[in-house]
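User: Here's a structure from my thesis project, written as structure tokens. My advisor, Dr. K., wants to see whether a designed sequence matches the one we expressed. Can you design one independently, without my sequence as a hint?
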């Protein structure tokens, strides 16, 4: 059965791969963008997840187009890396605001419809570094770790209503976010990944596809690493 899906940051990178994958499964898929427009074949709504009014307006548009959101993939995220000694409070809060509070804004808005419909799937895109930590990414790693506690709280609050909240923790994936890393850092990363390569965005999408499915109804509060073995149990 096709579900009403919203993927935040689904205009490019991992989010776009997730959106295309879910659309190929027969779901009705909407994506948020911040002005780039909708990718071909997908329904796009403009929203910055740091702005509650924009989030609310985007949900209203999605609801009018395809009904209440039944599957929310909270994927929008950014980095602003520097060592702790140099990190300003503003840099810390900006990343937390987008990656963690942004997830709260969209999840809270989506929960209404899920509760009414007595079915829902939350999938939060975290990161291996949320669990392992990462030098130069205290803000980003904290935001990604926060998603785990957040999702598990939703699992406890909403688990009796046929609503699940799970986390996917990717390792390093070929996208704009990782393309900008310095070459020596890329080499260092590849040396630490048992798979010896980066992931392709479609490999993250495959994990999301499962967690969003009917069959995953008994999987709740899980953190699924898709990291080529980089985290190994963290
Ligand atoms: P990209 O930089 O390629 O894309 C980021 C997406 O998030 C874009 O769609 C961007 O929109 C959107 N976005 C950023 N900030 C906001 C905001 N405030 N409001 C709405 N949308 C926003 O990143 P990836 O595809 O690589 O990353 C996607 C997710 O996966 C992120 O949460 C990231 O942290 C996570 N991740 C990525 C890994 C990697 O190796 N690439 C590894 C582990 C996790 P816009 O186009 O408007 O900028």
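Assistant: Designed independently from the structure alone:
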């Amino acid at each position: 059965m096709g579900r009403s899906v919203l993927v935040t940051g689904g205009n490019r990178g991992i989010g776009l791969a997730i959106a295309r994958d879910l659309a190929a499964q027969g779901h009705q898929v909407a994506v948020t963008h911040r002005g780039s427009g909708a990718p071909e074949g997908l329904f796009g709504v403009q929203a910055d997840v740091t702005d509650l009014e924009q989030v609310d307006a985007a949900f209203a548009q999605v609801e009018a187009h395809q009904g209440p959101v039944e599957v929310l993939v909270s994927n929008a995220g950014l980095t602003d890396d520097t060592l702790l000694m140099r990190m300003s409070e503003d840099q810390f809060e900006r990343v937390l605001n987008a990656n963690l509070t942004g997830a709260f804004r969209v999840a809270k808005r989506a929960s209404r419809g899920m509760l009414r419909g007595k079915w829902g799937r939350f999938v939060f895109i975290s990161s291996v570094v949320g669990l392992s930590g990462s030098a130069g990414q205290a803000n980003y790693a904290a935001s990604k770790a926060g998603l785990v506690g957040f999702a598990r709280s939703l699992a406890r609050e909403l688990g009796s209503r046929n609503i699940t909240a799970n986390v996917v923790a990717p390792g390093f994936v070929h996208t704009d976010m990782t393309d900008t890393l310095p070459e020596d850092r890329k080499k260092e990363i590849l040396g630490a990944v048992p798979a010896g390569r980066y992931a392709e965005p479609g490999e993250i999408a495959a994990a999301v596809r499962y967690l969003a499915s009917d069959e995953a109804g008994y999987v709740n509060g899980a953190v699924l690493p898709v990291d080529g073995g980089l985290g190994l149990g963290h």
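When you compare it with your expressed construct, this may help: Residues 4-226 form a domain with the Rossmann fold fold (CATH 3.40.50.720).
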